């Protein structure tokens, strides 16, 4: 709701600075021809840089929704949003061609948004991030260790938050190591999780969800570091 209010305030501020009355603003002439264009070129942005297509689209749609509402309530002259049809391709594994063309209705003037691809940070960036976590005064050693645990094992945030003193046995001689013949740095310790795990809930213990038990492999050096942190 706050984001919606911020977008609406942005549009009303623009109207005020451009001496435009929201009661007479036109879709093509003003919303697309000026408001959208100024955001696209960077004229109407905080740092004078072009905004992303997605940001512009949601701002224009918020303004259009508001003006349509005003028109419906007879607070302004009629307001219309032109529509066009655009072809899209839908993946369909049951179709011999693997996809089906389809036409959908879209707001005229809507910008095509660039698809974003998920990328992973470089190793150097991860190392620098961990150093910043460990450097935090007071909680650094705990926060850094939790972050490394998530990175190394892939456990979920809730599972990490529910890690207990007895999750990892305090006596290393009782750890179950899957590859005991490997060098120490390459060994992995089997750890069983049951608190905060994903799936059916079997009750609560000290406020933590009791879920299905599952095993993870923790690198031996990290297990030692964790034990040292918890038991000393």
Summarize this structure as a short list of keywords or feature phrases.
232 residues; 4-stranded antiparallel beta sheet; 41% helix; DNA integration; 6 strands; alpha+beta; 2 domains
Write up what this structure looks like.
The protein is an alpha+beta fold and 232 residues long. It folds into two domains: 4-107, no CATH class; 123-230, no CATH class. It has helices at 2-17, 27-41, 53-72, 123-134, 140-153, 157-161, 220-231; strands at residues 83-91, 99-107, 176-177, 188-195, 204-205, 208-219. The strands form two sheets. Strands 3-4-6-5 form a four-stranded antiparallel beta sheet. A two-stranded antiparallel ribbon has the order 1-2. The mean pLDDT is 87.
Task: Give the count of structural domains.
Answer: 2
Helix count, DSSP H or I runs of 4 or more residues: 7
Order of helices and strands: HHHEEHHHEEEEH
Multimeric status of the protein: single chain
**Rg, nearest Å:** 28 Å
User: Which residues form runs of ≥5 with pLDDT under 50?
Assistant: none
Please give the order of strands in the largest beta sheet: 3-4-6-5
Give average pLDDT, whole number.
Answer: 87
> What profile does the largest beta sheet have?
4 strands, antiparallel
Relative strand content? 15-25%
End-to-end Cα distance, whole Å, is: 47 Å
Judged by helices, strands and strand pairing, the structural class is alpha+beta
Helix fraction by DSSP (H/I, runs of at least 4): 40-55%
Q: What is the number of E strands?
A: 6
Which overall shape is indicated by the principal axes computed on the Cα atoms?
Answer: elongated
Domain Core-binding (CB): 1-71
Keywords: DNA integration, DNA-binding
GO biological process, one term: DNA integration
GO molecular function: DNA binding
